[in-house]
Amino acid sequence: MSFHIMGTGSYVPDLIVSNDDLSKIVDTNDEWITSRTGIRHRHISVDETASQMAAKAALAALENSGLTAEDLDLILCATSSGDAICPNMACQVQRDIGATCPAVDLNGACSAFLFLLETAAAYISTGRYRRILCVGTEQMSRILDWTDRSTCILFGDGAAGVVVEPGEDYLGTEIMVRGGDEVLKVPTHVGNSPFSKLEPTHPYVCMNGSETYKFATRTVPHQIQLLLDKTGVMQEQVDWVVCHQANRRIIEAAARRLKGIPAEKFLMNIEEYGNTSAASIPLLLDECNRKGLFKRGDLIVLAAFGGGLSCVASLIRW
Ligand code: UT7
Questions:
Q1: What distances in angstroms separate CA 306 from CA 275, 309, 313, 317, one per listed residue?
Q2: Which terminus of the chain, N or C, has fewer Cβ atoms within 10 Å?
Q3: pTM score
Q4: Is 80's C-beta closer than 6 angstroms to any atom of ligand 1?
Q5: Model confidence pLDDT, tens digit, residues 261-298
């Protein structure tokens, strides 16, 4: 027993910031950002927090599933840019949507949504919970250093999620973790303990872009192939690939290595949203679901990578 996706939902803030807008803030330009990343716009929060966005995405997912908050047995959330460390994101969403079920977070940076699905599948297979809401939400704009042109142009804000119930449509997952913080980290404040001898931190996204790029282009196609081998699915049978939207070139490089999957099967919305971290995969899933792109029975590969470092590939049937 695994799960079936009942419905999807998403929310992005109204403010759309273009590459030209960013060129007024840091030394950059539309040509550089578009050609290196594929990003043209991102939605940026003005007065909404990650938990407020998460609640709106959650309500949309519930409506799309034909459920109310009272029908939920568990809420799982993921964020790297939440409003607070305590209470966790899932507890705030539980309150805001009017649910009464247990609620807890997982921290997995940009791969987090696939860790949520893996956790939901495990809970469902034990019979412990039946209907589980999984939401990734990010207010990346609050953890970016807006003086650092190498990172502030990459990310966007938004939230998205799914509701799952017992079913047979989660077909497998392949997870790899290479622990370390040299390539990508978001340190927390060091605090003001009079006893601490720790150096003050820079509590913003710190990333070695080219190392992250190399990690992603190497591991994403590798994990996808491992997943397909494990589940006995040929590349030619894959209907869609929903990859973490971090850089158009990373997705195109993965497509070149997986020659049996036509490039147009690798779906993208990075142009409009940038990298929304934990929200990235469910945001694209929701967009495609609402467009009616996915047909019942479609085989969809989900692939994520990010801070940890981690790389996760999962196979679902729509
Ligand atoms: O979900 C989290 C995972 N994160 C990622 O997946 C990010 C992965 N990495 C990347 O997407 C790419 O490495 C970047 C888009 C971040 C950078 O692209 P790149 O082709 O690796 O550029 P680079 O870092 O090697 O920089 C090339 C040049 C440098 O100038 P010099 O030293 O060659 O003169 C940078 O200073 O581009 C410069 N540069 C910029 N120029 C204009 C860096 N950022 C900018 C910018 N605008 N925003």
A1: 11, 6, 12, 24
A2: N
A3: 0.97
A4: no
A5: 999 999 999 999 999 999 999 999 999 999 999 999 99
